Amino acid sequence: MNLYEKIQETAAFISSKVTTQARVGIILGSGLSGLTNDIEKEASLKYADIPHFPVSTVQGHGGEMIFGKMAGKDVILMSGRFHYYEGYDMQAVTFPVRVMKALGVEILIVSNAAGGMNKNFVIGDLMLINDHINQFPEHPLRGPNDERLGTRFPDMGQPYDKELAAIGKIVAAENGIAIQEGVYIGLQGPTFETPAEYRWLHVIGGDAVGMSTVPEVIVARHGGMRVFAMSVITDIGISDVPVTITHEEVLEAAAEAAPKMATIVKGLVAQVG
């Protein structure tokens, strides 16, 4: 069974279980599962029960696809994502994005926890992603291209939708939420970066770094989806004093910032959903 057939089979299975007709899909990152409290849940499916879905193995990531309403609009929400460092190939990592597209999703909202490399950032900041640098060792579009899923050579001149970003900024301002803006660099992981790597990543143009998001955004754009993405800055990698980073601290910082993220996401969904 090829990728397209797997996508159609999975989408058909989900459609047989739920009635939600969502235009917006949301992917939650580490420590941000609290955003599930902001959805009026109509149904949920565990990843283990969905055909061809991998299973999230990382602490701080839920393991279900949730269907319901946010700000009165139908949404599909992924509580937990899949990472390349877990051992999955890029087709598996990005498969849920393909399925959401097949279910009718046109706008993808992506969140993540990231390390900050901009000296103007502090822990707990929200960073609107306006561009990215792909440093993964594998590309999600490598291999034969199926034109039913997208063009062979998709343009990445504007991976993050400027109109959606503008709406997000307005929602943040209206709610008194200060946000940063910058470039996200995606790395394989699972190690956190060394001080030298943080410095290098900042030199090449990065403001934040993480282990996700970039493959999902590439596949979303391949499928013609519009993307809004935001990072929670959970640690600062550029410092005169070496800092020890733990996953537990990342989860804690993300959880504290999650309510601000939820406010922006809800406001965005209300206007575009």
Report on this model:
The chain has 273 residues and is α/β, with parallel strands linked by helices. It has one domain (3-272): 3-Layer(aba) Sandwich (Rossmann fold). Helix content is 31%, strand content 25%. The chain contains 6 helices and 9 strands; from the N terminus they run αββββαββαβαβαβα. Strands 5-8-7-6-9 form a 5-stranded mixed β-barrel, surrounded by 4 helices. α1 (3-17) crosses α2, α2 packs across α5 and α3 (162-174) crosses α6 (247-272). It is globular.
Helix content: 25-40%
Percent strand equals 15-25%
Q: How many E-type strands? A: 9
- Count of discrete alpha- or pi-helical segments spanning 4 or more residues: 6
- Largest beta-sheet details: 5 strands, mixed, barrel
Unreliable stretches, pLDDT < 50, 5 or more residues? Answer: none
Round the mean pLDDT to the nearest integer and report it.
90
Strand order of the largest sheet: 5-8-7-6-9
In CATH, the homologous superfamily goes by the name Nucleoside phosphorylase domain
How much is the radius of gyration in Å?
Answer: 17 Å
What is the H/E string?
HEEEEHEEHEHEHEH
Named CATH architecture? 3-Layer(aba) Sandwich
Q: Which overall shape is indicated by the principal axes computed on the Cα atoms?
A: globular
Provide the CATH topology: Rossmann fold
Number of domains: 1
Assign the CATH class.
Alpha Beta
